[in-house]
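Chain A, query sequence.
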Amino acid sequence: MAVASSRRAAPKAASACRLKARAAGAHCRVVQRLKKRSEFLAARKGRRLNGPLFFIEALERPDDAPARYGLTVTRKVGNAVERNRIHRRLREAIRVHSGADMVPGFDYVIVARRDLLAAPFKRIGAELSARFRKVARGDAGGRSGQKARPPGT
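Chain A, predicted structure.
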């Protein structure tokens, strides 16, 4: 008897999660991933929200499609094992804690900092939710933390 691969089992698990959420009356928001380099570069033109564990670049799209997110962990943060651990922690925090706080029609790029490795998991989820709610309220200004350049430089 063959065992189903985890790739085939994943969509069933996700749909089961949605069914349970609907049955309980909870709202289960669909969140998609950014996959192309051009999508990541486009998000750089949006708002920037700084935090102690990561910063988020949020770009409003003209459509009302589900929110999309991408993760960036640079080589400055650590070796491949540490970077992959950060990726896994962020993906799980979005899935468990803060995916519902993402606003439809926005692209989010989350750029991790090294402090995220040692941070408690609940804090990661709380920080993500706080940043996503800030985007929803419209509090996020332009590219905060950067001085305006005089024209022509």
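The longest strand covers residues 54-60. Confidence is low (pLDDT under 50) at residues 9-26, 144-151.
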